[in-house]
User: What shape does this take?
Amino acid sequence: MGYPVGDQQPSDLGALITLSVSPAGTYNSPDMSGKGASGVKVVTNITAQGGVAPTLQVNLQGKDQASGLYYNLLSSVALAALGLTVLTLFPGAPVSANAVASDMLPEIWRVQAIVAGTTTPTITATIGASTAK
Assistant: This one.
């Protein structure tokens, strides 16, 4: 993995969320510290799904420290297939809708996963992250 500027080293945060859920719902990682980091890669690996038309949307969110409210920095499309999806947030990164955002990582951030579907959707997935300085 290359980093656009200087001698940047990744910090592997490991699995933020491990999902095996039913029914549909919204699941949040704990607040994560972005202190000292410029960006992050969030990796989602969907390994199983069930029900009718299950989907998983992954949102990378910042936290406004004044109000305590969360806001979306980058959102995936509704993921409906097994496999790996990577979201990248980094200043100066070439923008690609629903995949890469050119922005800085705020001091407090989290990952949100939204499971949806029409009849008892289930998703089994891991979501991990690595920050870049």
